[in-house]
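Dear colleague,

Thank you for sharing your sequence with our group. We've completed the structure prediction you requested, and as agreed, I am returning the results in plain text so they can be pasted directly into your records. Please verify that the sequence below matches your submission; if there's any discrepancy, let me know and we will rerun it promptly.
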Amino acid sequence: MRISMIALAAAAALSAGLAQAETATYGIDPTHTFATFEISHFGAAVNRGRFDKKEGTVQLDKAAKTGKVEITFDATSINSGTAAFDKHLQSADLFNAPQFPTFKFVGDKFSFEGDKVTSVAGNLTLLGKTAPLTLTAKQFNCYQSPMLKREVCGGDFEATIDRTQWGMNYGIDWGFPKNVHLVVQVEAVKQ
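Please find the predicted structure tokens below.
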């Protein structure tokens, strides 16, 4: 009898621990999520742009320190602030939006320091090619939104990529750099 009570208590403790370590799903908040890029323009200035349309989800298990993020960006929504430049960015020279209207980041290797995400590693699919990408968190936080009455998690993540890995070679012969600085600002609402 005593052994069965101990076994029952151990099973209850185990199931309580499993219940606490569960994955939560968060929907990307499109009003607080943007991917921006920065690339030098002949060393004189920096060209910048962002993608206005995006969607995705984040799965996060804080106790297990695991997660998965999937964000799809609409290449036709590029916004540099100049319509003529946007049109060129969408052309076959660069993002080739007619043939590849979206690009996607899928990350499933989360690194933590305490309860804060410090990086997410995964793959970026752009121009029909997939290559590894690690986004490093410059800040990360989860908070109870007073407006939404739900938990929101997010942060600012950065990486520098060699755009030629994805076949984006326009301007290399003229001296445009290969390296592009990415900043991904993400907030996601617990579902």
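Summary note from our side: The chain is about 15% helix and 55% strand.

Kind regards,
the structure core
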